[in-house]
Design goal:
Elements: H1 2-35, H2 38-42, H3 62-72, E1 77-86, E2 89-97, E3 103-109, E4 115-116, H4 121-131, E5 138-144, E6 160-165, E7 172-176, E8 181-186, H5 188-201, H6 213-235, H7 241-253, H8 266-276, H9 278-298, E9 304-309, E10 323-331, H10 336-403, H11 408-443, H12 472-493, E11 498-506, E12 520-528, H13 534-602, H14 608-642
Antiparallel strand pairs: 1-2, 2-3, 3-4, 5-6, 6-7, 7-8, 9-10, 10-11, 11-12
Helix pairs in contact: 1-5, 1-6, 8-10, 9-10, 10-11, 10-12, 10-14, 12-13, 13-14
């Protein structure tokens, strides 16, 4: 089975390499097809769609034109007669078959039924100008008589006129001479679409054949790749449940620095951090390393293979017969390996919960930074609004200066206010840049990676503090305590004997006293008894001390969590009081005071300084409200970390 799995892996790998590039091209083409509007590819936004045309001219019988056509051509049969308009002139378009079965078209004036010639260059240029909406200059006019399989006019009626416009869309309009109308609009988006469609269909000869052999072959190869992947998954599924659980968890995290689309919400930012944070990846690999120890400590000691050579002076012609080969398997005292395995499992479980605690802390840090940046951006918005208000007040002040009802000193006062505001804006912008750089490090992205931060502080959800789930920090300490207890028991086993069983193969001349001339198989039993035990007793005392330390650390972690929960609860309560103070009492009154002072200033009943101070008071209260809302959200984030509801448990 191992050989079959190995061969299947090689087949799967080479199939993946063979079709990987084509899968990438299919994906790129699919992205372009799904993200680009078909109307833009067809050029509909720049195309004039003609409506119905009303003509007061009497129309002649098209049979007259058909009779004239029979005289001039080898007409076999008619395929259709259609009334069209060429530059507002009604025209009969007559389709007919000639010798050889080829379909041709003729044009006749619908008012007189006289045959006319095909569309010339001037008519084609005028028709193209009418069919293309933007008033763009014409770059070239060219008559084409053939179109290859890769031409953008392939399959079109020939001959035709190609009119290229000097426009950002790179549009070319094709007017058929015989059909008397603009049949194709080709722009840059259509050409890219056509190229990607060729890669999609894998028709490198004509671009439009969706049933070519190459496409069918790669479709079969792709199916084989997927099926071989399913078979490999089935063959390798018998792994430890802990690994499967870890893969399920960290598959959600991604464990890849590849960046997704720019996250716009807090949840998406947290998922980005779970996927790319290097500290979390290191914690995961530490857990994986601990799980590998479980297999090591649970296995028996490797058997010893021995070779001895006895210099038998009685035998000189056969040195090989003087050899002895033996194998010995030592068996630890019963229960020792089980305790060692329990200790390794406890250590792995502690590593898991440490990684889980780190994941929760990273989510908390992302939320804390996100709310902090949102608060600073709201403060920045308030400062800019105040700066706009100062500019408006400056206009009012200059009008009063012109009327002689204001002082020049007021103009200097406003200039000082503007300078202070500009400095505060610059300081807040730098604080935001510094905070975002630190937060991007937590997200695992470069410091210059663009992320759209919120402009206002959103409301954070209050966590369920009544949840009884144990925190990963305490769970990790408890697992460490169990591991220390197992190691203490293992140290006690070190003073007990070990039994070994083995088998020796002795040559006929190994000692010269064996009966017969052949090799002898001799079973043996070994017993190893420690003589002093000082090292084992010291290890037992060490493990006991470590167990006591782990118990004390568990108690300390529980007390620390309780203190942190109490502090975060008080922070939320303090932020709620500040919110109520600013939102319900201070800010509405300050805004009302600002309006009253501004009205008094316009009426000449208040000084400019009083107006500015009232406005600054309202600004300070508004910024205090934004800061209180951000602090409340950050405290709620701390409570969410301390009362986690999404702990992922695993038993390695």
């Amino acid at each position: 089975m191992a050989t079959f799995t190995y061969r299947l892996r090689r087949i799967h790998r080479w199939l993946g390499l063979l079709i990987g590039i084509q899968f990438l091209l299919w994906t790129i083409g699919g992205l372009y097809f799904s993200w680009t509007k078909l109307e833009d590819i067809h050029g509909d936004p720049t195309r004039h769609h003609h409506g119905y045309f009303e003509s007061a001219d009497a129309l002649a019988n098209p049979q007259t034109a058909v009779d004239s056509l029979k005289v001039r051509t080898n007409l076999l049969a008619l395929t259709g007669i259609e009334l069209i308009h060429i530059l507002d002139v009604p025209v009969w378009r007559i389709g007919y078959l000639v010798l050889g079965g080829q379909e041709r078209f003729a044009l006749a004036d619908a008012r007189s039924a006289r045959l006319r010639g095909p569309v010339d260059s001037l008519e084609a240029l005028a028709m193209a100008r009418r069919d293309f909406l933007p008033a763009a200059p014409v770059a070239s006019v060219e008559r084409i008589t053939e179109a290859g399989p890769h031409s953008e006019y392939r399959g079109g009626a020939l001959p035709a006129w190609r009119i290229a416009f000097d426009h950002p869309t790179g549009t070319r309009v094709y007017v058929s001479e015989e059909l008397g109308q603009a049949t194709h609009h080709r722009n840059s988006q259509w050409r890219l679409f056509d190229f990607l469609w060729m890669l999609h269909t894998m028709d490198y000869e004509g671009r439009d054949n969706f049933n070519n052999v190459l496409l069918r072959a790669f479709s079969i190869f792709g199916l084989l790749t997927i099926l071989s992947g399913f078979v490999l998954f089935y063959l390798t599924r018998k792994r430890k449940k802990s690994v499967v659980a870890a893969l399920g968890l960290f598959l959600l995290m991604g464990l890849s620095p590849a960046l997704q689309a720019q996250p716009a919400t807090l949840a998406e930012l947290q998922q980005q951090a779970y996927a790319a944070n290097p500290d979390l990846q290191a914690a995961f690999h530490q857990w994986r390393a601990q799980t590998e120890r479980i297999v090591q400590v649970g296995a028996l000691p490797d058997p010893d293979l021995m070779w001895n050579w006895f210099a038998n002076p009685m035998v000189r012609d056969d040195p090989f017969s003087q050899s002895m080969f033996g194998v010995m398997q030592m068996l630890p005292w019963g229960g020792m390996r089980g305790q060692m395995r329990k200790g390794a499992e406890a250590d792995a479980l502690a590593a898991w919960y440490r990684a889980e605690d780190l994941r929760l802390r990273i989510g908390r840090d992302v939320a804390d930074g996100w709310f902090a940046i949102a608060g600073m951006r709201e403060e920045l918005r308030l400062l800019r609004e105040h700066l706009d208000w100062v500019r408006q007040l400056d206009q009012l002040l200059r009008a009063r200066l012109a009327a002689g009802t204001a002082r020049q000193a007021d103009l200097v006062r406003l200039e000082l206010e503007r300078e202070e505001l500009r400095t505060r804006v610059a300081v807040v912008e730098r604080d935001i840049a510094g905070m975002s750089a630190m937060l991007k490090r937590t997200l695992g992205v470069p410091y210059d990676h663009p992320i759209a931060w919120p402009d206002r502080v959103p409301e954070a959800a209050r966590p369920d503090t009544a949840a009884g789930t144990a925190h990963p920090m305490v769970a990790a300490m408890g697992a460490m305590e169990a591991g220390m207890d197992a190691m203490r028991r293992v140290a006690g086993y070190e003073t007990r004997p070990m039994v070994g069983v083995g088998l020796d193969a002795m040559g006929p001349a190994y000692v010269g006293m064996l009966p017969g001339d052949g090799w002898a198989l001799v079973p043996k039993l070994s017993l190893r008894i420690p003589l002093w035990g000082g090292r084992a007793r010291a290890a037992t005392r060490e493990a006991g001390a470590r167990l006591a330390a782990a118990q004390a650390e568990t108690a300390s972690a529980a007390q620390e969590l309780a203190a942190m929960r109490a502090a975060a609860t008080q922070r939320v309560a303090a932020a709620d009081e500040r919110l109520a103070l600013y939102r319900d009492r201070l800010l509405p009154r300050a805004e009302r005071l600002t309006d009253l002072m501004l009205a008094d200033y316009r009426a000449g009943m208040a000084d400019l300084e009083e107006v500015v101070m009232a406005r600054r008071m309202a600004l300070d209260y508004a910024m205090g409200l934004a800061s209180a809302r951000a602090d409340r959200n950050r405290a709620l984030t701390e409570l969410s970390y301390l009362h986690p509801s999404d702990i992922r448990h695993a038993v390695p």
